[in-house]
Amino acid sequence: MNANDNNLRDELGRSLHRQADHIGGTPISFEQVKHTAGRIRRRRAITASAAVAAAVAIIVPTAMFTANLGPDAAPDKPPVATQSSDPTPTDPTPTDPATTAVPLPDEIPHVGWFKRSTMEIVMPDGSLDALDRADYDQFAVIGETLLASRPDGNGNGFLDVIVDGEVTETLETNGTLVVSADGTIAAWADRDGKVFAQYAGGSTWEADRVGFGGDGGYYPTAVSGNGSCKETDVVGEGVGGCTVYVGQGGEASGLALNSHGNGEMPPGLASVRDVWWSADRSRGLLSGLREGSPEGVANPDPWCSVLVDPADNREVLEDCTKRLETISPDGRHVLAVDIDSDSYGPLTYYVIDTTTGKVVTTVEDRGTLFNAVWEDDGHVLFLTVRDGMWSVIRVGLDGSVETALPAVAGDEFEPAYVLPKRR
Amino acid sequence: MATDRTSAKDAEFAAWMTARQPALLRTAYLLTGDHHSAEDLVATTLAKVYLSWDKVQRREVIDGYARRILVNENNSTWRRAWKKREVSSDELPERVTIHDTYDDGRSRQLWDFVQTLPKKQRAVVVLRYYEELSEAETADALGISIGTVKSQASRALATLRAAAPAAGFDRQDLREEER
User: Fold this and answer.
1) Whole-angstrom Cα distance, residue A1 to residue A12?
2) Which helix (H) or strand (E) holds B75?
3) Which is nearest to A58 in space by CA: A76, A72, A42?
4) CB distance A202–B29 less than 8 Å?
5) How many whole angstroms separate alpha carbon A364 and alpha carbon A399?
6) How many C-beta atoms surround the C-beta of residue B3 within 10 A?
7) Crossing angle of helices B2-32 and B62-83, rounded to 10°
8) Are the beta carbons of A225 and A199 closer than 8 angstroms?
9) CB B94 within 8 A of CB B35
10) HSE-up of residue A346 (Cα within 13 Å, Cβ side)
11) Which of A77, A95, A134, A167 is most buried as measured by Cβ atoms within 10 A of its Cβ?
12) Residue of A9 and B45 predicted with greater confidence
């Protein structure tokens, strides 16, 4: 690097030092900081409460309680979530407080949703916003960024990156969007199948993206990480880095794309559906598919679902009649559907104990079930449709069913509500 | 016990704040261009660090964390102002007279140029050439990729290069950051 190359950089540096080095004045006092912190804390609480009031105002005028939900359905009320019962400490990662949820009373809904007819979205933190389009069919909130996906009509998709209600970027995708179990990392693929991941990490509207290499044709099925895809990030006592599990078009076996380098699929697994870690990263579970069927059991499908302990790749659960899906926030349960469920949507969902493998709750006779989302450790939200009526129901581990969002008429192929990819 | 923990936390934060505030203020001034905005930005940054103090287990990351909040809060403020369609004032930007016998006027011209840069480019320039962060450290602070740091720096210099004749810079000095 010659002197000319350094010249402008050095001049800029000297100029900036000349401007700034003399800057001083009366220091901000600790009391002033505490006062400002209190104001920020109160503003967040007020914003959340106002958003809740507005959200209720959306629901109440459209409240319709239909007989389709059965006599045991409870009166309408907004989705309610409680904090995870995982007793381990919260993530020690130093995140920007703007992206950290302020503890809210239990009665305030914590799970967001998008209502197509009004194009209004209630965010997971309870704030309310209006989007400019009605055709979003998937969304996730990563830090302060809303990722909203919509189809392009040709089998692919567009991913709108939305910050403060403004679309800051539109990406061409192959329609995929997956989110990590802790909601901090999202992944998708572009139309060449190149995989991208985005994480919060304190950034604002332009969070970093890690582009993974590959021959294309990938579609993400799950993503796992520690809050950041940057291996240089310090996260708690460890480092960042994420893994995106992908399927390959036309291929039987998937891949694990790791931001540290080449990742490895757990031995024997053909695909990964979900990855869960406890808050302190001491326990983990991975749900996926592997070939084969148990000896002596007729299996119409060449795949079996398994739960694997990622620490030692030990299978902790096997089920060759069901397809395991997302794991509960506390890792104690997993959602599952019949392995021969068709692509429109299953009619039956199971909640399975990850320790015993036993079915603890069966959800059936509720119409076709879409968008199952764990609301908290003990409840699952289902988007359902029956006879052209869309609603969101809340199902408890005890089998209780109540209406979370009221039934509205809609096209049977275009849901009236959209639930987030993760809570 | 809770009171003791709070007192210890407050004392620790106050000590860090005392040590770090001057540097934050200088960087904030370079990002905002005026003293009042810089103080406001630092006050918000310190408050947000304070709100997260319990979450930070490794104190050596605090400085980088505070810097990240500072630059991102500055960007957020700009975005909110843009949404409100604020009308720019007729007032001239704050000017501080620097009496420097070694400055032939180029320093002022460079500072004027920096103040015209888009927010992100300006942040890259400040972090790279004032705080002398590496590309990786700058990327980390801004939450962007190293490639974006390079491209933003390159664009800033390209803009300066385009303005070179009017600014009186020697074009030969401006070939840089093409890597």
Assistant:
1) 17
2) helix B62-83
3) A76
4) no
5) 11
6) 7
7) 60
8) yes
9) yes
10) 20
11) A95
12) B45
| A348 Cβ contact partners less than 8 Å away, ≥ 6 residues apart | A337, A338, A341, A362, A363, A364, A369
Q: Do B18 and A27 touch (CB under 8 A)?
A: yes
For A88, the token pair is: 């381990």
Whether residue A310 is predicted with pLDDT greater than 80 in this model: the reply is: yes
End-to-end distance of chain A based on CA atoms, in angstroms? 51
Count other C-beta atoms under 10 Å from residue B175's C-beta.
14
Question: What does the pLDDT look like over A317-355, one tens digit per residue?
Answer: 999 889 899 999 999 999 999 876 655 678 889 999 999
A102 band by pLDDT with thresholds 50, 70 and 90: very low
Asked if A217 contacts A247 with a C-beta cutoff of 8 angstroms, the reply is: no
C-alpha to C-alpha distances, A418 to A102, A111, A114, A371, B48, nearest whole angstrom: 24, 11, 5, 8, 33
Contacts of A368 (CB under 8 A, 6+ apart): A344, A345, A346, A347, A384, A385, A386
For residues A202 and B71, is the Cβ–Cβ distance under 8 A? no
Q: What is the mean pLDDT of residues A59-80?
A: 33
Residue numbers in B near A233 (CB within 8 A): 140
pLDDT 10s digits, B53-109: 876 656 678 888 888 888 877 876 544 443 333 333 344 444 444 444 445 677 888
Which of A339, A348, A268, A272 shows the shortest CA–CA distance to A299? A339
ipTM, two decimals: 0.79
Residue type, A268: G
In B45-104, the residues whose Cβ lies within 8 Å of chain A are 46-48, 50-52, 55-58, 61-62, 65, 68-69, 72-73, 75-76, 79-80, 83, 96, 98, 100, 103
Within its chain, how far is the Cα of A190 from the centroid?
19
pLDDT digits 0-9 by tens, A354-367: 999 999 999 998 88
Please tell me the predicted confidence (pLDDT) of residue B16: 92
Q: Where are the beta strands (DSSP E) in A201-254?
A: 209-211, 218-225, 234-235, 238-239, 242-248
Kindly list the residues from chain A whose CB atom is less than 8 angstroms away from the CB atom of residue B6: none
Give Cα A368 to chain centroid, integer Å.
22
Q: Phi and psi (nearest 5°) for B122? A: -60, -40
Instruction: Please check whether residue A281 touches B, CB under 8 A.
Output: no
Q: Mean of the pLDDT values across residues B122-128?
A: 93
DSSP code for B128: I
For helices B2-32 and A3-20, the axis angle rounded to 10 degrees is 120
Mutate to test the interface with A, among B50, B60, B157 (most CBs of A within 10 A): B50
Contacts of A298 (CB under 8 A, 6+ apart): none
Dist CA B32 CA B34 (whole Å): 6
**According to the model, what pLDDT value does residue A40 have?**
72
Q: Does the predicted model carry a pTM greater than 0.80?
A: no
